[in-house]
Amino acid sequence: MAIHDQRIKVIHNPVAGGRNRKRLRIALQALRKHASKVKVSPTKYAGHGIKRADKAINRKPDKIPYDIICAAGGDGTIAEVANGMRGSDCPLLVLPLGTANVFARELGLGTSMRKIAAMVETLHPKQVYPGLMGNKRFIMMVGVGIDSLSVASLETSLKRRIGGAAYVVAALKAIKRMKELELTVNVDGASYETANVIVTNGRFYGGPFTISPNAALEEPVFHVVMLHQKGLWAALRYGLALAMGRLPYLKDVTITKGTHVRIESKNALPVQADGDYVGMLPVEVRIDSFPLTVLAPRTHTSEAAES
């Protein structure tokens, strides 16, 4: 699907700092060379991306509809836009401006805006399968454990100032609660006891790190990654193994597949989805029956995904 002569609605999450403004400008210049119209609409509050996307797709009869919806921001912004697009076959274009940009890596776009700008005319539509938590979509993952404790402790203002390092600060705050990580995870009727769980439909986690090497966005199934040990030393060991690409192969890590997952605990524990706090346990997730059409390279390599 060539972007040439298409009408594009760009839903942008404004991020402080000149670097992201410059990166967005590079992408917009490339889009405007090819598209007949590029309209940029910034989001103003949490959830605004859902409304922006829904309005862009369901335009009034006297308005010409947009051909492509573009999400410019992090994974949370992309998830909002994807929620507003549910049920539509309008394609989504991703411009990664977040901290981890896991979805863009998964699609093979990478994170270099100059590389993305150079390939915009060669991207092709591809169907992927988000997850559903209640009636709300998530594009990549839901997690409960040290990651959700950290996300719940994250200070947004600090994240804007120091970026990914804010997660390290949040993780240190979460240490004192790790003893509470006692989870029961039900995957398509099979029950497991564990300390941490990530329900994902992709390979990557926290950026370029592989958490489930056989997962694929285009397959309508979750990979459920369970890290069974809890405590500070276990968290450090898991973090090191993740950085070294060894986490999926540890003896105390279980990976199984399913389409319906329920997570519960006797303790009050937070849940994260696509890197944002979304509530408390218990939680049930399932594969969305409506696929999401995205624009991606026809083929991609691990190098592109990790750029």
From TrEMBL:
Keywords annotated in UniProt: ATP-binding, Kinase, Lipid biosynthesis, Lipid metabolism, Magnesium, Metal-binding, Nucleotide-binding, Phospholipid biosynthesis, Phospholipid metabolism, Transferase
PANTHER family: LIPID KINASE YEGS, SPHINGOSINE KINASE
Domain of life, source organism: Bacteria
Family matches, as InterPro entries: ATP-NAD_kinase_N (IPR017438), Diacylglycerol/lipid_kinase (IPR005218), Diacylglycerol_kinase_cat_dom (IPR001206), Lipid_Phosphate_FormReg (IPR050187), NAD/diacylglycerol_kinase_sf (IPR016064), YegS/DAGK_C (IPR045540)
Cofactor names: Mg(2+)
The protein, known as: DAGKc domain-containing protein
Classification via SMART domains: DAGKc
Keyword Glycoprotein: no
MF terms in GO: ATP binding; kinase activity; metal ion binding
Keyword Protein transport appears in the UniProt entry: no
Biological process, per Gene Ontology: phospholipid biosynthetic process
Record GO cellular component, one term: plasma membrane
DAGKc domain span: 3-137
